[in-house]
Amino acid sequence: MTGLDSARLTFHGLLSPWVAGAIALVAAVAVFVLYAREHGKIGPVRRVFMAILRVAVVGTALFLLCRPVLLAETKGERTRGVAVLLDDSLSMTQQDQRISVADRFRVAIAENRVPPDAQVTEQLAAGDVPAATTENPSRASLVRAVLAHPRLQLLENLERRAPVQIYLFGQRLRRVEEEPPDPERKKPAEPAAARAVKALKNAERRTALSDAINDVLARSEGDLPAAIVVATDGQDNASKITLSEAARECERLGVPLHLWGVGSSEVGNLTLKDFASPETIFYDDTVSVPIRWRCRGFRQGAAEITLSLGGRVVARKEVALSEGEDFREVLRFTPKKDGGAEVKTDLIVAVRYKGTETLTEDNELRRPVSIVDRKVKILYAENAPRWEYKFLQPALLRDRRVEARFVLAAGDKRTLTSGPPYLPVFPATRAELFAFDVLILGDVPAAFLGAEKIGWVRDFVREGGSLIVIAGRQNTPSGYAASALAEVLPIEVPAGKPSAPESDRPQSYVPVLTRQGERAEMMALADTPEDNARVWQTLPGFYGFTPGARLRPGAVALLVHPRLKVNEQPLPILATHYYGKGQVFFLATDETWRWRSNVENKYFGRFWGQVIYQMGLPHLIGTPKRVQLSLERPENFLGRPGHVYARAFDAEFRPYAGERLTARLEPIDAKPGEGRARSLSLEPVAGQPGEYRALLAHDALGRFALKVDEPASAGLEFRVDLPPQHELEVAGMDEALLREAAAASGGKFYREEDLHRLVANLAPRKAAVTSRHEVLLWNAPMLILFVALVLAEWVLRKFSNLS
Question: Domain total for the chain?
């Protein structure tokens, strides 16, 4: 009901009412004076009446010139509408696996196979679910079924209580417009349920649930709905505010949220993201396996992480569950010898939910490993016990994978002749030297070795042995510039002293990882690329380096100086390459011991352990890799391309010079007839001999194997996952979040068995309505009045025989 609240007269003309009034007063006096002097034979009554008519004519004209407007305000009440928001995002196309009888019974309610007021109780049995009930329907199909439910008639009953405005939301909110009736075709307006079902496409690739609710609230006070009804799975990956914040705003404005949770809340997913393990492990050596995994949907319960070797579980750990994207655990085991000297098998890591999990294909990863019985034999030749030697020697002796021997050119004779781990002299025969897997050469004078033994070192590397050269201040590498060792090193040996004087290098520097260094396993000081980059940036700096050193063709720098350059290329601090069948590792400083500051062997021990392992294994197992494959990043997501890199060598272990490498990309999880192998071309990387690269599109989910046949066989397995918060990620309806938001707003949460109560729970609400009306008084009736007054005076004057 509405009623008049106020009315007032305003003027919009150029002539103000006060001026018009003054003119009217003057005109009235003039009119009465003129009619008083009129010479006609008329009586005083007629004379006064005609004067009044003339004054009325003038007054009406002046009134119209002021453009009068009558402002009238009416106040009343109207019924506030209800906003219905339907989730139109891609996540609604997911088909939840209905595990429990209760969840399957809810599908029967939505599909009108049981009464809408049927109760979901613990006493339900599998036989209570009608046989025709859809087994695992999509969330979107449930919404359509409920909207078209003939007994529930949700939208129809809402419209009987209050005006209904239907919206769809994905990345943005949009209204489902009403189609007006067509009188000519005698076609009535389309029902709300039919309009909603027709409009739902469920193709939005992002969901902004909270923003959609906030957009409905962002209206003038009079247009706020009485309530907001939302059908959603609770997933939100695009909103600027949280659902809790939106619920609090609803509560402040008095607009309760009535949230229907669509889907199953029993869906959760554990994903094993990655684990790190060496390709070769040693009997009786404790192996640590860092594991990264994530949990979605499970907020409680437990999972078991297992580590299996050769089909037998060798380590397990139970963990309590909570939602998160990056959980980390470390499992350890010690392989015991029960077979041959070398065994090839698989190392399998699995994470299992201690309950029922819908998707288990991403719960397991495996890597091929070899178990060997030998230890890596190392010969460390040094001039005198400098700091690097003092800390590296005990680290090598503690490593159970290593059998180390030490020889000092300027060492104490009694110590050197005391027996293992010391040798009194450098190996006297080629056979003695070739019995080692790795030679570490420190700041040893070339004269200590002699030309013949330096030639043995060259041959040792050429035949597959590994050489690690640690630069010094006196002899290495400049002392070998004219020897056979110069051609073995990955740098061109500069003349002069190997380091600048102390006074010339007062400032420390933190070496920088190159792109090749980021991908090298021996350079990993943390378990993820992000953490590894952070560690390298925070390590204590070095002072020493080899001035003027530059890479040989085909060599790779893993660490470089952050400021100094040689021929426009960064000065190498750590470089490596293959010489013959062996790998050579050159470190241009002897200060890695500085990394022990405050953390002892955390980084120093890990670095040298990985270097020794990587350098020693090829000679130990006799199978150096001619093609090495690596990915740009350990995690690969759908729709986010990434590069695969290959470092290739020919039969003589020189950088491969082919125009390209041809690889096959094979889907591992594809069912017969679904996926086919694709050919992939790896193109050369400019300025990096032997290095090739190709872009992987990551356009399909699952596990893949990349295989190269030429110049040698190599393989790499990886998995492509959905990116975090993707619309199609396996995640159940977020019941806890929806319940909390509904309660905070003053509304209610609903499952399918509760929907028959929804309309009754909506309390009718009224909104105050104030209407303002403008009535223009210079309209046709006023013009007719003016003409009538003029005509009346004229007629009277004619009857009075006046001109």
Answer: 5
